[in-house]
Amino acid sequence: MKGHAQKAAEFLADEPRSAWHDETLWMVRSKRDVAVHKIPEWESLREAASQIKEHVLSNLESYLMQFEQQALNNGIKVHWAVDAAEHNRICHQLLAERNATRVVKSKSMLTEECGLNGYLAQKGIEVIDSDLGERIVQLAEEEPSHIVLPAIHKKRQEVDDLFVKHLQTEPSNGDAVYLTKAARRHLRKKFLGADAAITGVNFAVAQTGEIVICTNEGNADMGVHLAPVHIASMGIEKLVPHRRDLGVFLRLLARSATGQSVTTYSSHFRTPEPGREIHLILVDNGRTQQLAREKYRKSLACIRCGACMNTCPIYRRSGGHSYGAVIPGPIGAILSPGIDMKKHADLPFATTLCGSCSDVCPVKINIHEQLYFWRQDIMAQPGQGGVKKVASKMAGWLFVHPALYRLGGKVARMALKVLPRWMVYHRFNAWGRARELPHNPGPSFQEWYRNREKRS
Amino acid sequence: MSSSRDRIFQGIRAASVPPVNHPQQGSFEGLMPMLAADRFSTEAVMAGTELHRVESLEQVQAMLVETEQIECSWCRLAGMELPGNLGSADAQTLERAEVQALERLDVVVVPAAFAVAENGSVWVSDHHMPLRVLPFITRHLAVVLCETELVENMHLAYGRLEQASYGFGMFLGGPSKTADIEQSLVLGAHGPERYSLFMVPEGVLPVPL
Asked: Residues A158, A161, A166, A168: is their CA dihedral positive or negative?
């Protein structure tokens, strides 16, 4: 299997495209900044959100019980799934019992995490992703490359080609309005004919048993309000204690995600519409394990805004697919090793530890610190590290032998002066592949300092 | 064998997370009330809302009829007559006999309980619509709001909702939109292509909403 570095290199091979990807995400980050600077109390909001999440994680059992009771009182059916397989089984059973074969789904990272689409397809159930970005990647038979902007890696001409092939549109040179309207017509038919709607959950309120789903397109609402059955999947960490806590999170979410002041639709579902059903599947799938890991616990506070991706210099220049994980970017690089450390061992290294992710995180997750913790934990595993480990050991040895260190420095400076270019810039010098080595300074700092003393 | 629910609870207990208090933050800095109305207009318009200040529901009706080809509509506000109004039908009738008509809806008019200055959104709930799909399936959504029902921020908004008993409710922040094709903003993704907000003086809408 290819690692992050290799897939990133492939992404970067197309220079204009990777530059465009970088600039586009930076534009989203800039919009976030503009929105955030209009809120003088932003930092207090982040602090409150962080504390509310930590409070919930420290009382998860009682809040889950309260939430379950309230939801049942509201007429919502509640199901529990320890892992992805059970989640998918429950979903399928609910659909099979109702002879539902046509399903519309709105964006849910949890169902991606569980591999629900593929599972249901195998059982002969048509699942249509209804978010435009998700529909685009579904038609392309790809995975979302970003949790908020699933098709951010696609150019408009590619979308045009996909729609010509699958939705019988006319070639339009990537006219976004034309293509969006075509998708609207196509998906309207799917909404009107759906037997069931599957959604994720942004927030669930323990006090009232209601769930909140945020979209800009209105696709979750179109699906849910037209289909007889609504199946909502949520991770057990999505709870907030009281309805008023939503005020804090709704102020943070859209501003952090896209720079909007609020999403177009922040829909609160407390009871099923008369004659319809709401089923809620509460999923663990590794969350209680992460809860037990003190260093990484805070990662469960994530509200999936994507701000850490938009700001990350590595994500912007390597693309979401290079991570090989459902959730890419900095937050994905601390969540994924918790699920499968071997498979995702290279992700915590796919960062510069610059800390920009932690600075923009609306719930103040110490993302870059956790990345560093993972690096240490992963290196402690047998068989990890390879060349880097040997190189670090050698460097360590050199540093405790000052005479050798000085001699080494002298030799290196001399070598850089006299060696021909091809002997310095070769395939083993990865650093020099796209960069020039710094100008040879002549004497080292120590030599310079000693000479200076002599002079005075 | 223990149930999945029990196993999840066992996992949570085994994690033994030390207690952390709820911040109990009462309120955050709000806007000056004077600025709130301006902020609301700016935010709403920026989100694609067509904002109008009018004196009466007759004026709302006139403006809608003038700017839209209306063949099918849904409106229950007394004093407004729109062509093809399905507003008198109850939920079952609407759904059974008119599901095709719902798809043809040109205009839906619903009242909003209040508006939020900091983000230009309004609160709309199922108290005022027999079918939840109405504000989503229509091509043009028109919302009527009493201009004095304005709170500064989301904390005060949830203060208004502390005791609310809606089955479904939403903060509505503009027309349906997407930017999923190369970040080009397009209005009218799945829901309404147009969203008009009519602000009327106190006393025009029935109280309490």
From this structure: positive
